[in-house]
Design brief:
- With 231 residues, the chain is α/β, with parallel strands linked by helices.
- It is built from 11 helices and 6 strands.
- A 6-stranded parallel beta sheet has the order 3-2-1-4-5-6, sandwiched between helices.
- Helix 10 links the parallel strand 5 and strand 6.
- Helix 4 runs parallel beside helix 11.
């Protein structure tokens, strides 16, 4: 039975992981500041197929919306990434099984992109909406996101969405490989279990980018907005 109550993961990083980075580079976080105008909030796969079935995915909707609203106010970019309808392949059938493969390749729905997002979001006029035909939104040739971000001079990406340990982690890894400053935000990412969620956070923090909670990123954005506001 579908759990009607939205949930948030009990996320954590061990103190030894923080100490490892402090010893390596002399500070806990790689990216102690970022320019909002060169930052994109990347929201991965927040479509009914994934969100409706997962109470953790429903639980992160408010955090994503808060981040989107504040980043737009600060002059940044919000990018919504949806699964593309892909061709059926023998490898997909072999790996998932034919019935599951057919379900997954249609997981993004059909019709105009804004209408395929989870209904709880409010979009901005300048938001980016694109499809991806691979787990990662940054895999070359499988999603136009990198080109769209390059057009806007983006150098920092805030990774959010579902599921943490598949498409979100894949996107964070490839974004790092392409030279982006990656910040995976811990509590607007969702998967099925805390242990899987936290394993990805540990991997990203160790090798691919920073891991921060929503509250810290919102506070940083608010400070930037206040600095830009005339006295």
């Amino acid at each position: 039975m579908r759990n009607p109550q939205p949930l948030l993961h009990a996320w954590q990083l061990d103190d030894r992981e923080y100490r490892r980075q402090e010893e390596r580079r002399g500070r806990r976080f790689a990216y102690t500041s970022f320019d909002p105008t060169r930052t994109a909030l990347v929201v991965v796969d927040m479509v009914p197929f994934f969100v409706d079935a997962n109470p953790y995915a429903r639980g992160i909707v408010p955090n994503i919306q808060h981040l989107a609203d504040r980043l737009r106010t600060a002059g940044g970019t919000v990018a919504w990434i949806l699964p593309a309808r892909t061709e059926r392949t023998p490898v997909g059938d072999e790996f998932h099984g034919p019935e599951a493969a057919e379900i997954f390749r249609n997981s993004g729905g059909t019709g105009p992109l804004p209408g395929r997002l989870w209904h709880g979001f409010t979009l901005g006029a300048d938001d980016i909406l694109v499809e991806k035909s691979a787990p990662s939104a940054f895999f070359p040739g499988r999603c136009p996101l990198p080109e769209r971000l390059q057009e806007r001079g983006i150098d920092t990406v805030l990774i959010t969405g579902t599921v943490t340990n598949v498409c979100c982690e894949s996107s964070a890894r490839d974004a790092c490989t392409l030279g982006y400053r990656v910040i995976m935000i811990a509590d607007p990412n969702a998967t099925g279990r805390d242990c899987d969620h936290n394993a990805t956070l540990r991997t990203i923090h160790r090798s691919f980018g920073d891991v921060r909670p929503t509250a810290e990123v919102l506070a940083r954005l608010l400070a930037m907005i206040e600095e830009q506001t005339p006295a």
